[in-house]
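Backbone-to-sequence.
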């Protein structure tokens, strides 16, 4: 008897899903640099690089920053160059 109740509840959930209109999943948001159609990130653009780092100077992950793999690599290189030039801090 318990299994029948569970199956009936599961079927109701499927019916509810079928009644919904529109896509179930949202489109992925594009990387901010892809939206601006930038090839590489400039190490001299300190304001943009500061948004990609924490107050301690650590870089945000791709998931947190929302960058694609290509631009995350470019950002990492730009941050390293900016740190060496003295434009960004190495640590807090």
């Amino acid at each position: 008897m318990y299994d029948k109740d569970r199956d009936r509840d599961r079927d109701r959930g499927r019916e509810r899903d079928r009644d919904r209109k529109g896509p179930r999943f949202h489109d992925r948001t594009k990387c901010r640099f892809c939206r601006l159609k930038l090839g590489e990130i400039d190490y001299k653009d300190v304001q943009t690089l500061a948004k990609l780092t924490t107050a301690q100077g650590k870089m945000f992950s791709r998931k947190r920053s929302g960058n694609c793999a290509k631009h995350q690599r470019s950002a990492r290189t730009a941050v390293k160059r900016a740190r060496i030039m003295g434009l960004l801090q190495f640590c807090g």
